[in-house]
Design a protein that fits this description.
The complex is a heterodimer of chains A (about 475) and B (about 450). Chain A is globular. Chain A is an alpha/beta fold and about 475 residues long. In chain A, strand 3 and strand 4 form a beta hairpin. Chain A has 13 helices and 24 strands. Chain B has about 450 residues and is of the alpha/beta class. Chain B has a domain of about 280 residues. Chain B has ten helices and 20 strands. A ten-stranded mixed β-sheet of chain B has the order 2-1-5-8-10-12-14-16-18-20, with helices on one face. In chain B, helix 3 packs antiparallel against helix 7 and helix 8 crosses helix 9. The termini of chain B are far apart. Classes of the chains: A alpha/beta (about 475), B alpha/beta (about 450). At the A-B interface, strand 22, strand 23 and strand 24 of A face strand 19 and strand 20 of B. Chain B: Belongs to the iron-sulfur cluster assembly SufBD family. Chain B: InterPro entries: Fe-S_cluster_assembly_SufBD, SUF_FeS_clus_asmbl_SufBD_core, SUF_FeS_clus_asmbl_SufBD_sf, SUF_FeS_clus_asmbl_SufD, SufBD_N.
Chain lengths: ~475, ~450
């Protein structure tokens, strides 16, 4: 079987550690996008009328918009009609325990190092595993339920808590925000939904592993996290995807809402298939992530480690509406071969005494291109607003590129904004120092990179930090010399 | 046709008409034609153009402008304007251009051997095209200028000649009616030669008269040559100044630019491009913008590192008073070949006016790996500690603030190599921060 050969080849070449295809029967909608597709998805998911209407509005907005042209790389043309917009494992019923889950599916997670069956024993992490477009197993739900925390798939939330979903969906990322957000609004398949009630501190890290599996299926998840007054939640998102020859589009939307005194911490490790050495294949990761600090003293913190995807295009942003609210953005982005990462953040200071902090570390190797693109906007009423931005770029190899495009807009004479950026080559004397002490160049570089990215990695929850550190080393293997 | 052209059809129509009537030599014909086509393609910029995102000129384009300057003859207020532009105690050669036309007179003694000055209109009658060809990229106004220019100043310093005294060029813009002028200059500093140029831009406009200056200056600094270039922009209200300077730097050349923009002109847009076309060059770009009233001052710079072993350093500082807006966009572009590049850039802004706005966009685009590049940008206010220190020593708040503004500007003003110019600039700054501003 071709797939098996592929698996063997992959292992032999070790180009991409997590690349394999799972053989599970899929329920796939034929490729193509029109109103009927949207009606089909909506019907399939038994959605209420208002949601279908909202999807159709998103589709109208999508049709009016054009693909962006401001980027400093060539965007491959995307044929939206060649994508299938719905794929679901052919599940006949909902599962109550892990035993009922398709064993092959479980094996997939095992290969990824997320042994779902062990998750129960491992205290602290509840996993809502999204396999392609439908949630198949949700653990720890009962325990969270006791605290009044809702952690479920988006589809479930639509069925069970329509009033909350209707109130907040599209309130941070409107259906017409940008072409990919509009597309997502029209065809989003599933995703995660979190609601933390007033004053509750979520006792565990909530985590979702997304996986793209079916050939030619773009994945359009939508995540909505609401932290009610005085609550706290830390959310992890991690991704791996199997080997592919054809480019896959991934246009997710994440919306975070932090009410007064609430705090949301959102961490991502993204390691989708980046394409081969010549840049063939690979995921297009065009994500819209935005949070709003609605009430006073709210806090939203984004942390991301980006090592995968052929093209990554995302700007996790924070709207600092409440007085004294805080936004943070910590990012490490690694590009190698022909990967392109164009990432950064937007901090909109609206309320008084709001503060934001941006730390971005880019690493470019091979022919990789890495851009930081960010906006710090201080409104006329954001008295005493404060921002600090630091973006550093590290270059490994003479074919790569590093770019910085910060936008600073201030309309307030009491605001303080600081931005600094540096770009330089990896330190030859540092490598020499380590070589001298018997550490070979490859390990030396891994060490230097980990030190360089430390400020960001430290922001990740412990178990994630270990994984991320390993990922950085693996990603840069063989990029020296 | 873009939206703006539709909005400003009178001006656009006039431009087409003027272009069709231009009598020109065959040599420059082709360059003009391609520039005109470029302009037709680009149109006037709108805020949808990334380079004009923060600089909305629509309201300025709504005024009607004639494209023909009043016939020669010294305007009545000329001596007054010249007095304004005069830099006390500066030993220099002085020349005056009225609406972009030089009368051929030189003050401050005879020019030494090796430097020649011509009117561009005289040079144009010679066979062969004076200017190098350029496709003008996204420089809307440069393309317009290159299509419509009729005069300007041509300077050439011959190889190995060092001109000790600076050349002070006073640009006077004056008109009784709304006018758009398009002066185009070309300055060439040949191998191993040295020159210092100080430009002053002043304008005298009565009542509601508006003047739009679309200036294009091309500079070639040849191997081992050096050019110091000071630009003092002190034009009056009613002036819309778009100043494009394109510098071509050859091997081991040095170019220093000092741009000072002071309150007055409604709109100032500077496009300064240093193109480092050969290796081992050095470039310093310094700028200071002190803005007041409803002024909009936009500084765009590009340092284009095309070849290895080049060094560039950029420092722009802004003080924003009242309701004024400042824009800074500094781009450092390092090409694939430009290894061993060192490029530094800094932009600091002091926002004082309650309604003042600053938009800062420092950019790095780097395609080579063995480089050291950095940029920094800050937006802030007076340091409370510094203010307290001064006040504790019996200095009034207003005076203390004025002192701090001068100190803030000092980093840029101290870089000027002519003490007389430095003194002049400091006086101008102090003059524009009266006590009531600092509040």
């Amino acid at each position: 079987m071709a797939n098996e050969n592929e698996i063997l080849d992959n292992i032999a070449n070790k180009e991409y550690e997590f690349g394999f295809v799972t053989d599970i029967e899929m329920d796939i909608l034929p490729a193509g996008l029109n109103e009927d597709t949207i009606r089909y998805i909506s019907e399939k998911k038994k959605e209420p009328a208002w949601l279908l209407e909202w999807r159709l509005k998103g589709f109208q907005a999508f049709r009016k918009q054009k693909l962006p042209e401001w980027q400093n790389f060539t965007l491959p043309s995307i044929d939206f009609q060649k994508i299938s917009y719905y794929a679901a494992p052919r599940s006949k019923k909902k599962y109550n325990s892990l035993d009922e889950v398709d064993p092959e599916l479980l094996a997939t997670f095992e290969k990824l190092g997320i042994p779902l069956s062990e998750q129960k024993a491992l205290a602290g992490v509840a996993v809502d595993a999204v396999f392609d477009s439908i949630s198949v197993a949700t653990t720890y739900k009962e325990k969270l339920k006791e605290l009044g925390i809702i952690f479920c798939s988006f589809g479930e939330a639509v069925q069970e808590h329509p009033e909350i979903v209707q109130k907040y969906v599209g309130s941070v990322v409107p259906h017409s925000d940008n072409i990919f957000a509009a597309l997502n609004a029209a065809v989003f398949s599933d995703g995660s939904f979190v609601y933390i009630p007033k004053g509750v501190r979520c006792p565990m890290e909530l985590s979702t592993y997304f996986r793209i599996n079916t050939e030619n299926t773009g994945q359009f998840e939508r995540t909505l996290i609401i932290a009610d007054e005085g609550s706290y939640v830390s959310y992890l998102e991690g991704c791996t995807a199997p080997m592919r020859d054809e480019n896959q589009l991934h246009a997710a939307v994440v919306e975070l809402i932090a009410l007064g005194n609430a705090e949301i911490k959102y961490s991502t490790v993204q390691n989708w298939y980046p394409g081969d050495k010549d840049g063939k294949g690979g995921i297009y990761n065009f994500v819209t992530k935005r949070g709003i600090c609605k009430g006073a003293n709210a806090k939203i913190s984004w942390t991301q480690v980006e090592t995968g995807s052929a093209i990554t295009w995302k700007y996790p942003s924070v709207i600092l509406q409440g007085d004294n609210s805080t936004g943070e953005f910590y990012s490490v982005a690694v590009t190698r071969n022909k990967q392109i990462a164009d990432t950064g953040t937007k901090m909109h200071h609206i309320g008084r005494n709001t503060r934001s902090r941006i730390i971005s570390k880019g690493i470019s190797a091979g022919q990789g291109q890495n851009s930081y693109r960010g906006l710090v906007q201080i409104g006329a009423k954001a008295d005493e607003a404060r921002n600090f931005t630091q973006c550093d770029s590290l270059l490994i190899g003479d074919q790569c590129g590093a770019h910085t495009f910060p936008y600073i807009e201030s309309k307030n004479n009491t605001a303080t904004v600081e931005h600094e950026a540096t770009t330089s080559k990896i330190g030859e004397d540092q490598i020499f120092y380590l070589n001298q002490r018997g550490i070979d160049s490859e390990k030396a570089i891994a060490l230097i990179i980990n030190g360089y990215a430390r400020e960001v990695l430290n922001q990740l929850p412990m178990e994630f930090a270990v994984e991320a550190q390993k990922l950085l080393s693996i990603t840069l293997e063989g990029s020296v010399g | 046709m873009n939206v703006l052209q539709e909005q400003t059809i009178p001006l656009y129509g006039r431009i087409v008409e003027k272009y069709s009537k231009l009598s020109t030599t065959a040599a420059s014909q082709q360059a003009r034609q391609s520039a005109f086509h470029r302009f037709q393609l680009l149109g006037f910029p709108t805020i949808k153009n990334e380079d004009w995102k923060y600089t909305n000129i629509t309201r300025f384009l709504k005024d009607e402008y004639a494209l023909e300057a009043p016939s020669a003859g010294a305007p009545a207020e000329l001596s007054e304007l010249l007095a304004k532009a005069a830099i006390p105690d500066l030993d220099c050669y002085g020349i005056v251009l009225v609406n972009g036309v030089w009368d051929g007179k030189i003050e401050g003694g005879e020019l030494p051997k090796g430097i020649e000055l011509h009117r561009v209109s005289d040079a144009l009658s010679q066979p062969g095209d004076l200017f190098t060809n350029d496709n003008w990229g996204n420089l809307h106004f440069a393309a317009l200028n290159a299509a419509l220019y009729t005069d300007g100043l041509f300077i050439r310093v011959a190889a190995n000649i060092v001109i000790e005294k600076p050349l002070h060029i006073v640009h006077v813009y004056t008109s009784d009616y709304n006018l758009m002028v398009q002066p185009r200059h070309l300055w060439i500093v040949d191998r191993n030669a040295q020159l210092s140029v100080i430009e002053s831009t002043v304008s005298g406009l009565s009542g509601e008269v508006k003047i739009w200056v679309n200036n294009l200056t091309e500079i070639i600094v040849h191997n081992d040559a050096k050019l110091d270039h000071v630009n003092l922009q002190t034009a009056a209200t009613g002036t819309r100044l778009v100043q494009q300077t394109i510098v071509h730097q050859k091997k081991q050349s040095l170019y220093n630019s000092y741009t000072f923009t002071l309150p007055g002109a409604d709109l100032v847009r500077n496009d300064l491009q240093a193109r480092l076309e050969e290796d081992h060059t050095e470039t310093h770009l310094y700028g200071l913008y002190l803005t007041a009233g409803d002024q909009l001052v936009d500084n765009h710079t590009l340092v284009d590192h095309q070849k290895p072993h080049c060094f560039s350093n950029e420092l722009y500082k802004g003080v924003l008073l009242e309701r004024s807006t400042g824009v800074f966009n500094g781009k450092v572009y390092v090409h694939k070949d430009a290894q061993k590049t060192n490029a530094f850039q800094q932009n600091n802004n002091l926002v004082i006016g309650k309604k003042a706005t600053i938009d800062s966009k420092p950019e790095l685009e780097i395609f080579a790996d063995d480089v050291k590049c950095s940029h920094g940008s800050t937006v802030g206010q007076f340091s409370e500690d510094a203010l307290f220190y001064l006040r504790a020593r019996g200095i009034g708040e207003a005076t203390a603030k004025a002192l701090l503004i001068n100190a803030f500007a000092f980093d840029v003003t101290e870089k000027i190599k002519f003490p007389a110019v430095e003194t002049y600039i400091n006086q101008q700054i102090s003059h524009h921060i009266p006590v009531n501003h600092a509040g």
